Every structure is written in C-alpha cells, then in structure tokens.
Amino acid sequence: MTSSEIAQRVDGQAVAPAEPQANSLPAPAPTEGATALMAWAQEASLAYDMAQKLAATSFVPQSLRGKPGDIAAAILAGSELGLKPMATLKSIDVIQGTPALRAHAMRAVVQQQGHEIELVESTAQRCVMRGRRKGSESWQSVEWTVQRAAQMKLTDKAEWKKQPQNMLVARATGELCRLIASDALHGMAYVAEELGGVTHAEVVPAKAPLSVAALTAQAPQPAPAPAENSSYTVEVGGNGEWDTDADDSTDWEPEQTA
C-alpha cells in the first residue's frame, strides 16, 4: 500500500484522501437562435411525416401531388403566414418552381394582420381596389384594366379570354398587397394567378372516362411482317424433272437439246 493510499488520521479519526478536482467547464447554454432552429427542425420533421401521408390524396393540388418534400415546404411556409396545414394546401401553388399564394389567400393573410382591403369596382373591363395598413388613415388605390393587361400581352392567354374579371381582381390583389403589407407576405409577393396565368393556378388535363370495353379490350396486335418473295419451284415426281409449264418460275431454265 502506498503512502497516498494510507488513510490519514486527524485527531484519531481516519480521513480519506481528497479526490482531484476535474478541470471541466459547464456546457454553454443554447442561444435563442439555436433554440429556435432546433424547434424549426422538429417542426420540419413533423411536416414531412404529414406530407408523406397526404402526397397522393386529392386534397393536394396538382402542382404538389406526389412531392412530399415540396408539400412539407409549403406547410412550413404557410405556418409562417399563419395558415394551418390543410388551409395551406388550398392556398399555395408552385408555379414554375416558385411558391405563390392564390389571390384569395393573399387577401386573407393581409386582412388577418389587421390591414384593410376593399373592392371598389369590378367588371370584365376594369378593377379598382384600395387598401390601407393597420392604424393608417391614408388609402392606397390600384387599378387594372383590360387595356393595361393587353399592353403586357396577358389578354392573349386562354384564362384571360374566359375569365377577364377574375384575372383583373387577381392582378389588383397582388399589386395592392405588395403596396400596403409586403412585410406580411414573407417573401411570397406574387399571387399564383400572376405567375401561372390561371385563376385557380391549377390546370388538370381532361381524361377520357373509363369504360368496361376500354378496360377489357385486348392490346392491339402488331401487323404480321410481309412474307418474303419465294421463288416458284415445282418438281414432278422424284426424278428431278421440273415443271416446264410454270411460266413464272425463275428457278429453272429448260435444258438445251442438241
């Protein structure tokens, strides 16, 4: 037993040797930013799990269907705008790779923040809207006309020909919301109708209705290949003599007799 292992005696009592102090610093407390990031990562994981279950359902718009990653991103973006997951899927579209709010959803987001929007006039030729920030007394007005749309070559698109009034309202919505409440849009400054040129931002190609005959019909068989031209040969008996009456035959020549 070494001297360090021998108990020390103080006033007749055994005292164990003191253990060395570990030179360890306390772990730093997580910063506010790190805590928020960890909470966001957890929210993103939950959103992706939810997106995987919803990706194949008809509740998801065509532009997002079958894309759980995009659906999760849309849910997270909608959460920042104050939208619940199912409301988000009816409010956000991805147009040419850019997420965008539909016009009705953008108005809802702005009005939810306490800002005011009014539709002053709406016809197939002209739309006038006005709005003002929460607590402000001054109004901002925007006007969209068919002539203005024609200058931007918008009226050549099919949806503008079918629903010019709705398209004018969508254009006015986007412009007005950017003027009075761009901070409420969190980077989604354009409505889906502006990017996609359709009033609902979703075009689903029409499919022919299925029938029993279509389901049970056999697949068309490929046409048989044309038969190769076979030469005409006719042999009489087994003595090797050819039929000289076969005028079309090309396989034989009459023997020349002396």
Automatic annotation (TrEMBL):
UniProt biased composition (Acidic residues): 242-258
Region Disordered, residue ranges: 1-30, 218-258
Recorded superkingdom: Bacteria
Name of the molecule in the record: Uncharacterized protein
